[in-house]
Amino acid sequence: MKTKLILHYHLLQIFFFLYLLHFTNSSQDPSSAIISRFQEYLQINTSQPSPDYKKATAFLLSQAQSLSLESQTFELAKNKPIVLLKWPGSNPHLPSILLYSHTDVVPSEPEKWSHHPFGAHLDSEGNIFARGSQDMKCVGMQYLEAIRKLKAGGFQPVRTVYLAFAADEEIGGHDGAEKFAESDIFKNLNVGIVLDEGLPSPNENYRAFYAEKGAWWLAIKAKGAPGHGAKLYDNSAMENLYKSIESVRRFRASQFDLVKAGLKGEGEVISVNIVYLKAGTPSPTGFVMNLQPSEAEAGLDIRVPPTADAEALERRIAEEWAPASRNMTFEVLIIL
Ligand SMILES: *[C@@H]1O[C@H](CO)[C@@H](O)[C@H](O)[C@H]1NC(C)=O
Ligand SMILES: *[C@@H]1O[C@H](CO)[C@@H](O)[C@H](O)[C@H]1NC(C)=O
Ligand SMILES: [Zn+2]
Q1: Sign of the CA dihedral with 65 first, then 70, 75, and 80 last
Q2: Is residue 169 flagged as an active site residue?
Q3: Which ranges of the chain would DSSP assign to H, the alpha helix?
């Protein structure tokens, strides 16, 4: 079992700071042009399961051209293009900065929208309605607009800045980020830091996130001899599962107590929640009431900070929450 450490940085903040500095003294690029370009990107229907990657690619390449950025497009999986742009630094030997974003968006139900999801309608209050406006075309465009401003102001980066616009994040990233990260193309970029998806900000404050909890979704399963519901005996599946549940709840409380006492932030503790319980023998009217079942199961949603001791948690699961000595097993459903 391993946790995937996902670092979601927002260097954007720095870029935006520089951007604002430049914005005040170079106003030849009015904000309406920035909005129009953003709308143009939003109007491309890159909705899963059949995103229009061709159109998105053409749009991004046109942006690259207008910014005089070097560009290349490659497919590590058929019809799943990655657009890679390059702004060479004055010292190309230093590790580079990679500004990463994905071009696909999740599906939408147009009839439930007040404006069409790919209309990018701008209302009188400045709200833009579009699927992907937050996740995450705004970030992709902010990278480009920040570079546009920096370039207009004569800024030259020391490190080479790359921008990657990749496919398929919303369906797991296997044919996007995953293949890219394993590729020689990526290795050759000599990346020192990657900035990826964060949260859009509704005001002038840009928050920097530098860590994200990983998700461990587990099923813990107990077995025990079945028996009559009237009898008291040890080691039934329910009793075995209950011991685990008590242990999980004690651990949960110990973590939550740290937060409540103000000793740790919510992001610094391991959270665990029991999200389902599965047991019992169905009957036509519900469950058989006088039978102790031979199997019982609980689902756990565990969230693990990158700073947590993952091995200690694995031991806890194997020894306390699903110990073989109590006829228990566990199954990892997903690790994110
Ligand atoms: C986006 O494109 C797909 C594939 O062509 C289509 O099925 C879907 O209806 C489009 N979505 C909207 C909201 O227009
Ligand atoms: C585990 O299962 C075995 C075999 O069914 C049984 O003999 C034993 O008592 C069980 N132990 C516990 C703790 O449930
Ligand atoms: Zn996203």
Answers
A1: negative
A2: yes
A3: 12-25, 31-42, 53-66, 138-152, 179-182, 184-188, 237-260, 310-316
Q: Of ligand 2's atoms, which has the minimum distance to the CA of residue 326?
A: 13
pLDDT tens readout for residues 71-108: 999 999 999 999 999 999 999 999 999 999 999 999 99
User: 12-195 belongs to which homologous superfamily?
Assistant: Zn peptidases (3.40.630.10)
Domain parsing of the chain, residue ranges:
12-195, 214-335
Query: What is the C-alpha separation between 71 and 165, in angstroms, rounded?
Result: 11
Token couple for 9: 């940085």
3-state helix, strand and coil shares in percent for the chain, rounded to the nearest 5: 35, 25, 40
Q: What is the pLDDT of residue 30?
A: 61
Q: Which two tokens stand for residue 50?
A: 């059949």
What's the 61 CA to ligand 1 centre distance in angstroms? 23
106 Cβ below 6 A of ligand 1: no
Question: What class does CATH assign to 214-335?
Answer: alpha beta
CA dist., res. 15 & res. 315, Å (int):
43
Nearest CA, atom 14, ligand 2: 235
